[in-house]
Structure formats: C-alpha cells, structure tokens
Prior knowledge:
Structural class: mainly alpha
Shape: extended
Order of helices and strands: HHHH
Number of helices: 4
Helix content: 40-55%
Amino acid sequence: MKKKPSGSSAQGRRAVKSVRPIPDAQIDFSDIPEATDEELKRMRRVGRPSSGRAKQLIAIRLSPTLLNQLRKMAAKQGKPYQSLIHELLEKAAAKAA
C-alpha cells in the first residue's frame, strides 16, 4: 500500500500546489442522500467542546529522558502527560510571580 504524502512534507506541499480548487457550484452532490429528520436529531458534534478557555498550541523541545519521566509521572496520576506539564508550569509560574 502506497503511503499518502503528508501535507507537511516537501512532497506533500508539491502535491497540494498541484490541486486546483473546484467552485462549490461545480460539485455534484446528487449521489448523496439527504438526511432525515430522525438522523438530524441523532447527530452530535464531534471534536473538542468549546469551553471558552481554549489553550494555545505551542512547540517545545524536551530531552527524551525528561519526556519519559513526565509520561511516567502522568501515568501514575492517571492523566495525560500534556495536562501534567501544564499543571507543573502553572504551579511554577504562580510560585515565581
């Protein structure tokens, strides 16, 4: 099976550039059945709930040893490691202020 090129790779960027956008008016939706009222009632939102307290995505470089320690600490506490890192940084910032 051929691997799909990633949008972040050089090959993926070239592939994205070669795609021409199609205006909505030219898209044929005739083979898609309309949703019934019952189906619409059963639908639910997928994804993260909007809480009004969205966090900002950042990139941070950590040593593999430190990251493994943080992951183990988080596993012992039964929480995601990114949440643990957030808590630790909050505590350190509050302490320093």
